[in-house]
Amino acid sequence: MLGEPKRDRAAERRTATRREIIDAAWQVARDKGLAQVTLRDVADRVGMRAPSLYTHFASKNAIYDAMFGDAWTQFLEFSKAAEADEPGTSRAAMRYYARVFFDFAVAFPARHQLMNLRTIADFTPSPDAYAPSVALMEDFIARMARHGVRSQDDIDLYVAIVSGMVDAQLANDPGGTRWSRLLDRAIDMFADNVGITSERSRP
């Protein structure tokens, strides 16, 4: 029809190729570990020669940067979808959101490492890659405020507890339940500390 914008097929192909490269990098990270991602391995998985990757990414760290943004975008979407099933009481909501993050993190250890542990020594995410993480935290702070937790110290403590439980699970019982089964107990201790002492919603 007249007036319809023409598709930029070249841009679509570039976007699709970048997506394929990021997916391949995740596959390498899952199979070999995050630090073992190489341009050669990524290129092999997408049927390219390694130098051809530079058409799409300036360096291996640029691939890590895209992966970082992709990981936080994945969790932002996962977390927003989970909000529909938020329990109606504050303590239950605290346990629920801890579980949402915990299960997402332990499902893919290499992704969690890139998102949260800074295991790539010379990699710092760009502002664009970091943006989904910032959006996630703003959303999380609003959720916590709904349940009466507004102090930054309290929010930091909650994050530290959940992240620590994830790290203990992955380090000491990968694939198991040793720390997973203690998560609700840890969050109940947090709720008691901040004054959410019953299953009723905090005003």
Overall description:
This protein has helices at residues 9-32, 39-46, 60-82, 90-107, 109-116, 127-146, 152-172, 183-193. It has two domains: 7-57, Arc Repressor Mutant, subunit A, CATH 1.10.10; 67-193, Tetracycline Repressor, domain 2 (Orthogonal Bundle). The termini are far apart. By secondary structure, it is mainly alpha-helical. The chain is globular, with a radius of gyration of 20 Å. Helix content is 66%, strand content 0%. The mean pLDDT is 93.
**CATH fold-level label of the largest domain:** Tetracycline Repressor, domain 2
Structural class: mainly alpha
Number of strands: 0
**Helix-strand pattern, N to C?**
HHHHHHHH
Sheet having the most strands: none
Number of helices: 8
Please give the CATH class of the largest domain.
Answer: Mainly Alpha
Architecture of the largest domain in CATH? Orthogonal Bundle
Shape category: globular
Q: Indicate the radius of gyration in whole angstroms.
A: 20 Å
Write out the CATH superfamily name of the largest domain. Tetracycline Repressor, domain 2
Q: What is the domain tally?
A: 2
Strand content: under 5%
Distance between the termini: 56 Å
pLDDT averaged over residues: 93
Low-confidence residue ranges: none
Write the layout of secondary structure elements.
Layout: H1 9-32, H2 39-46, H3 60-82, H4 90-107, H5 109-116, H6 127-146, H7 152-172, H8 183-193
Helix pairs in contact: 1-2, 1-3, 3-4, 3-5, 3-6, 4-7, 4-8, 7-8
Which key terms come to mind for this protein?
2 domains; Tetracycline Repressor, domain 2; 203 residues; Arc Repressor Mutant, subunit A; 0% strand; mainly alpha
